Amino acid sequence: MLLDEEECLKWVLGNLLDNATRGKVAEFVVAKALDVVSVGRLEWDEVDIRYGDIDVEVKSSAYLQSWEQTKPSKIIFGVKARIQRWIEETQTFEVLEAPQRLADIYVFCLFHETDRNRANVLDVSQWTFFVAKRTDIDASIGWQKSASLSTIRMFSRECSFKMLKQVVDETARKSS
User: Fold this and answer.
1) CB neighbour list of residue 117: distance below 8 Å, 6 or more residues apart
2) b/e map of 111-140 (b: 16 or more CB within 10 Å)?
3) Model pTM above 0.70
4) Which of 58, 101, 123, 128 could form a disulfide with 48 if both were Cys (CB 3.0 to 4.6 A apart)?
């Protein structure tokens, strides 16, 4: 007996506003904008998306959460440097000599919808994207583990889903 795929996905993913699920949706949205969805997602890879020779890390935050709220959440993105990386070929973790951010480009995805009745994480018009080079992040905030939206805006370029691929390409080409 073959189980129903749609039913399975609904069970596994549950509420798309849930933090962990929304993060994976954000990765999908960015992969879709970069036209690399067909490559698939590797759960333990050292970066979220391989886009040609550009390694991309995707971070997500939202005003709305899956639980009831008295006010919108403060927007914070995790930017912690890693102390190890996954090596797919050997199926092992490699301990890094020093903590570091591993991706070339970071895409900070803000799900900006605040109306729970309208909220749909699959509606790309409800997202705003901020694109930054790793070197700009390192120079701006050093080894901070998280950054607020106002901080992210200082070193990134804001764009819509429609412009995301172009902005990632331009940011990757930008001299350090």
Assistant:
1) none
2) bbbeeeeebebeeeebbebbbbbbebbeeb
3) yes
4) 58
